[in-house]
Amino acid sequence: MADTAAPAADPADDLVRARAGDDAAFTRLVEPLRRELHAHCYGMLGSAHDADDALQDALLKAWKGLGGFQGRSSLRSWLYSVTTNTCLDAVRRRGTRALPVDLGPSSERTVADAAPRTDVAWLGPYPDGTLGAGPLAPDARYEQREAVELAFVAACQHLPGNQRAALLLFEVLGFSAAEIAEIMRTSRASVNSALQRARAVVAERVPDRTQQQTLRELDDDRLREVVTGFSTALERGDADALVALLTEDVTWSMPPLPQWYRGLGPVTDFAVRVPLTGCGSWRHIETSANGQPAVACYLRGDGSDVHRAWSINVLTLRGARIAEITSFIGQEHFPAFGLPAELPPATNGTFVS
């Protein structure tokens, strides 16, 4: 039987159709770039929700302004110009996002009744399930997953918007200084200055080894032992099992709670007093966030027969131990990961894999 599948649309033809008002053709043009554009928005804004809004706004601007695209650069470059400037507008309106470690020193004593801070724009987790493993451009320094790692994104939040944009466009996406100057509507000298300043700030805040480098040195079985061991220790209230997984200088933070803990003693005391004994029953789903292993936590309180979404716990590893636990508390984080808001009563044990 002859192959009757429709031939793939020609991008040049789709561009003509899109300029004539064909929204399906425009969708075909931008769809291959949508995921990387979204990751770029997250790198700029530090929030998956803000990235959704910014990308939607940028693509609407691109659709309306497609007639002004003259083809002097690639469509990808033009879309990054529209998207980057949309994000810069958002940065000017909303400011930057933070983690608890940015707000002050660690707490030496456990705060069991901590209240969330609503006056802080908090950094959020990023669902990375469809991100590619390789660089977006041959001369990009950071791989796609490295570019959304918590340490890198948090460091970028300490940069002014123009420096943040220049760094991401150059180091992650592989644009040249001349291309970035056109994208950001500035001079090449300004771009080079912004890059120099941005690199200095980021170098002080990002570990020498990325999580991707660490994870590549761990075999799958050992990684699963660490992640499953963390989940099981919380579910069973097993402090010894949890401590065995942690580095001596481990940190645990829980945005939007401002308190955070550093060191095996304070972290263990917090774990014993709060999640291991003071919250209720836990169940977990293993996932991935920010290019790192993560665990979605579900909590069942008194008088309830279901476990409800509580936090996305992003684990930062050093070797085969957990060096940082960042618990992003809030049900609002779960939909982006495709995770349910609650789990029904378990029929075979309590662990959900």
The CATH topology of the domain at 212-343 is given as Nuclear Transport Factor 2, Chain: A
Order of helices and strands: HHHHHHHHHHHEEHEEEEE
The stretches of 5 or more residues where confidence is low (pLDDT under 50) are: 348-353
Number of helices: 12
Mean model confidence by pLDDT:
91
The helical percent reads 40-55%
The N- to C-terminal Cα distance equals 44 Å
| Backbone structural class | alpha+beta
Q: How big is the Rg? A: 22 Å
Going by CATH, the architecture of the domain at 212-343 would be Roll
Biggest sheet overview: 7 strands, mixed
Overall shape: it is globular
| Number of distinct beta strands | 7
Percentage of residues in DSSP E strands: 5-15%
CATH class of the domain at 212-343: Alpha Beta
GO molecular function, one term: sigma factor activity
Subunit structure: Interacts transiently with the RNA polymerase catalytic core formed by RpoA, RpoB, RpoC and RpoZ (2 alpha, 1 beta, 1 beta' and 1 omega subunit) to form the RNA polymerase holoenzyme that can initiate transcription.
Domain RNA polymerase sigma factor 70 region 4 type: 152-200
Keywords: Sigma factor, Transcription, Transcription regulation
